[in-house]
Amino acid sequence: MKVKEMSKEILRKNLVHAVEELLQKKEMKSEVYKFIINPIIEANKSYNGSDDLMRFWVLSEENVGGRILGIDDVIDLLGGLMPLVPIWINISFIEMKSDSSALFQLDCSLRFRKPSLLRNAETGHAPFAIVI
Known about the structure:
It contains four helices and seven strands. With 132 residues, it is of the alpha/beta class. The protein has one domain (8-131). Strands 2-1-5-4-7 form a five-stranded mixed sheet.
């Protein structure tokens, strides 16, 4: 199954769906989600000009390294080249914060691709894959 379209709204819906599925598997609940974006440089993969723009500017260590972001910021950053988005994003639960928010890590590819090339389409929330 291939993804036919991608927008910021679809990316947000897919992220929320992945978060809710992960929380359900962990038997936890939260209404507030926070994220750390961890860009992954993949060995032996080629990057194009758009990828380099995102890698060196938008998702640079200086810009996102260790920062805790809300869902709006995540969608704006990862959806900055819409309809191109990271080809894959692995989401894992980190912890429940003292303010009852759930903190997640998003390990993401730095290769931004069109919707039909996205991985994890079978999950129903491409490009996100849940890591337990």
